[in-house]
Amino acid sequence: MKALFHIDENERWPRVLLNIENFLRDVGPGGADIEVVANGAGVLAYRGEQGELTARMAELARGGVVFAACRNALNMNGIADDALPAFVTVVPAGITEIVKKQEAGYAYIKP
Amino acid sequence: MKALFHIDENERWPRVLLNIENFLRDVGPGGADIEVVANGAGVLAYRGEQGELTARMAELARGGVVFAACRNALNMNGIADDALPAFVTVVPAGITEIVKKQEAGYAYIKP
Amino acid sequence: MKALFHIDENERWPRVLLNIENFLRDVGPGGADIEVVANGAGVLAYRGEQGELTARMAELARGGVVFAACRNALNMNGIADDALPAFVTVVPAGITEIVKKQEAGYAYIKP
Predict the structure, then answer these.
(1) Hey, which residues does A4 pair with through a beta bridge?
(2) For residue C24, what are the contacts with CB-CB under 8 A and spacing of at least 6?
(3) How many C-beta atoms lie closer than 10 Å to residue B81's C-beta?
(4) Torsion angle, CA of A78/A82/A85/A90, rounded to 10 degrees?
(5) Fold of the CATH domain B2-109
(6) C20: which chain A residues are within 8 Å (Cβ-Cβ)?
(7) Is CB count within 10 Å lower at the N or C end of chain A?
(8) Smallest Cβ distance to C26: which of A93, A103, A110?
(9) Inter-axis angle of helices B52-62 and B13-27, nearest 10
(10) What are the pLDDT digits (tens) for B67-77?
(11) Residue C109 neighbours by CB under 8 Å, 6+ apart
(12) Using CA atoms, how far apart are residues A46 and A7, in angstroms rounded to an integer?
């Protein structure tokens, strides 16, 4: 299974992470290719280390979950690349990434 | 046509039901396979009978609309199976169900 | 690439338009077929001329972006056809349009 999670509101991160954790518990480790694309205010959670939230992302990233950030959103929010956690991948435009992934067979989910 | 409606905020139920009612009026009875997947706080509307909202769901269910509830969300919200309206189907994980349906050709809609 | 943007909350228009502008900047003019489907309260931005917002829509429409409005939502909000900007297309039911476009290979995005 392949799943793309879209987040553009920072306060929805706990919901997104819980969705992914429950999903992986259901399908088992490695049971799905998962990518999270954050654009708009969704990138704010990538600004440095944010305790429990960042720790849960890092744990999921170790299990293979991809965390992407939209370059435009990082610029608009004044977040420099060296402020990003090591597991974050920057993509030129979040929407392009979302469209490409759906074309590659990923299901779209907007928690 | 096949359509999957995702709801994870309880206050959006009127919008979801109106969307489905208008959709069915447009395509005609039996014109589409429709499933609603509720996870997160979206399952709160399944807690027993809730008057007009439950009545509209029941009416749609009689017309073939599937109403699914995420097991994790039911547990988190302390909703026992015997509190669910008879037309509700429980799925082990809402996200898995959403991904599977999209893989089966269902369009995704998040009202 | 083909992308369908769904909007049913009027206050999200700035976000939707910025998403599309950044997307087109990334893929280049004509690099994607783009349609916006507004239903529910999302059609309120189509009520006559609304300054900068309408100007940005018109500019995108000149570049080929399709702006659709759900007939049911227009009726519910008392918006007559002659109040709509010239670039708006009316569809009988927003959800039907969204499902059809996904069946035609459009990626779904809900900003």
Answers:
(1) A35, A108
(2) C31, C32, C34, C60, C63
(3) 10
(4) 70
(5) Hypothetical Protein Ychn; Chain: A, (3.40.1260)
(6) 95
(7) N
(8) A93
(9) 30
(10) 999 999 999 99
(11) A6, A95, A98, A99, A108, C3, C4, C5, C6, C19
(12) 12
User: Could C39 and B20 be called an inter-chain contact, meaning their C-beta atoms sit closer than 8 Å?
Assistant: no
Cα B63 from chain centre: 13
Determine, for residues B93 and A20 on separate chains, whether the beta-carbon distance falls below 8 Å.
no
Name the neighbours of A, counting chains with at least 3 Cβ pairs within 8 A.
B, C
Number of residues that this document lists for chain A: 111
DSSP state for residue A37 in the 8-state scheme: E
User: B12: exposed, middle or buried (C-beta count within 10 Å: 0-12, 13-18, 19+)?
Assistant: buried
Rounded to an integer, what distance in angstroms lies between the CA atom of residue C101 and that of residue C84?
A: 23
CB A87 within 8 A of CB A58: yes
Can you count the helices (H) and strands (E) in chain C? 4, 5
The interface predicted TM-score (ipTM) is 0.96
Query: By a Cβ cutoff of 8 Å, what residues of chain C touch chain B?
Result: 6, 8, 39-40, 70, 72, 92-96, 98-100, 102-103, 108, 110
The share of chain B scoring above pLDDT 90, in percent, equals 95
3-class SS of residue B108: strand
Token digits of residue C70: 């759900």
Task: State the pairing for strand pair A107-109/B2-7.
Answer: unpaired
Residues pairing with C34 in the sheet: C3
**pTM for this structure?**
0.97
- Whole-angstrom CA distances from A25 to A31, A65, B95 are 9, 13, 11
pLDDT band at B29 (very low <50, low <70, confident <90, very high): confident
Instruction: Count interface pairs A-B at CB distance under 8 A.
Output: 49
Q: Which residues pair with C15 in a beta bridge?
A: none
The tokens 């027993």 sit on which residue?
B48
Burial of A29 from C-beta contacts in 10 A (0-12 / 13-18 / 19+):
exposed
